[in-house]
Amino acid sequence: MGMPRLTLNAITIGAPDPLALADFYARLLGRTVTTASEPAPGEPPEAGWAQIASDGPGFALNFEYERRWRAPVWPAEPDRPFATQHLDVQVDDLDAAVAHAVAQGATLAETQPQSDVRVLFDPAGHPFCLYL
User: Which SUPFAM superfamilies match (predicted)?
Assistant: First the structure.
């Protein structure tokens, strides 16, 4: 029996306010929030789910409510929540891309490990990288 066909089609990101975070990434990436759902009965107003569909080859970004969200610390520190993954976004002009990201609500990380990469935090505190 051969390997079954497996296709990566989405990355799902937990967030304290998924609709707001989807809006941030839509503005950052020049995409549209293609699907969004309001909180289920009994959930707080910031709950819900949203998706930014792929604009071609690639995958969608999903954002789902995480009731017990705690922003990761980057770089990692002992006994603190840490990022187990992050998004890498290729850019053609690093300075312009950083300025755009900050204008959309991102924060530049204090620690920058490489000259051709910039680490930023989205409004929920997830780190992401812009790179040449």
Answer: Glyoxalase/Bleomycin resistance protein/Dihydroxybiphenyl dioxygenase (SSF54593)
